[in-house]
């Protein structure tokens, strides 16, 4: 039974738009279903059937004998509150995820990022963020950081604090703070890893 009988764009915003699907349920009854997308009407995934990532999340560790994980405490407008998360951002134009990670890490933290390419590529493929409300996919980029923390390149809309978090700090954050879902799972992997990237070998 056909469940999608057409989709139309309801808003016109350069960053995120609302779409309406003329949908049908399992009994053939029609209803309207809404989702958000960063893509224009020609490139929403309901039409392209691709998983090309719109963005990245960056799992970045220091090169110390006891590595620390780069975390952000960032103000998020929909919450009117601060949230702990990993550095992340959108892929610009023809950037690869790795190039986007280098740029975003510098802009958000001031740190220099070097990609780690070991382990299985299954952990680098794009995954959906929340398919009940958006078609967005993000890829995870892994690597190490060096240099000094700086907020000099933050945009005016970004209210960010940068932390190099050891395992004890991460445990406390997971127990008490607002945390993004993808950030939480990557923090959990960091806690369970013998070295910063050992889980990529699984």
Kindly list the characteristics that best describe this protein.
202 residues; elongated
Q: How is the secondary structure organized here?
A:
Elements: E1 4-9, E2 17-24, E3 30-37, H1 45-48, E4 55-61, E5 69-76, E6 81-85, E7 88-90, H2 97-109, E8 112-115, E9 127-128, E10 137-146, E11 160-165, H3 167-176, H4 181-192
Parallel strand pairs: 4-10
Antiparallel strand pairs: 1-2, 2-3, 4-7, 5-6, 5-11, 8-10, 9-10
Helix pairs in contact: 3-4
Structural class: alpha+beta
- Count of beta strands: 11
Our Rg estimate from Cα atoms comes to 19 Å
User: What is the averaged pLDDT score?
Assistant: 97
Give the number of helices. Answer: 4
| Shape designation | elongated
Query: What order do the SSEs take from the amino end to the carboxyl end, as H and E?
Result: EEEHEEEEHEEEEHH
Low-confidence stretches: none
Biggest sheet layout? 5 strands, mixed
Strand content: 25-35%
């Amino acid at each position: 039974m056909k469940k999608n009988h057409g989709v139309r764009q309801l808003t016109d915003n350069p960053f995120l738009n609302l779409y309406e699907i003329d949908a049908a349920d399992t009994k053939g009854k029609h209803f309207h279903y809404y989702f958000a997308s960063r893509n224009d009407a020609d490139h929403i995934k309901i039409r392209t059937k691709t998983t090309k990532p719109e963005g990245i999340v960056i799992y970045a560790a220091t090169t110390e004998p006891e590595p620390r994980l780069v975390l952000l405490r960032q103000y998020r407008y929909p919450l009117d509150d601060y949230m702990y998360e990993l550095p992340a951002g959108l892929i610009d134009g023809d950037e690869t995820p790795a190039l986007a990670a280098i740029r975003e890490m510098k802009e958000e933290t001031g740190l220099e990022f070097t990609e780690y390419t070991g382990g299985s590529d299954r952990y680098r493929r794009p995954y959906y963020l929340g398919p009940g409300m958006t078609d967005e996919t993000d890829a995870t980029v892994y690597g190490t950081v060096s240099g000094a923390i700086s907020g000099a390149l933050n945009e005016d809309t970004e209210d960010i604090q940068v932390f190099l978090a050891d395992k004890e700090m991460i445990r406390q954050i997971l127990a008490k703070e607002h945390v993004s879902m993808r950030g939480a799972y990557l923090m959990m992997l960091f806690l369970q890893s013998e070295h910063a990237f050992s889980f990529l070998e699984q």
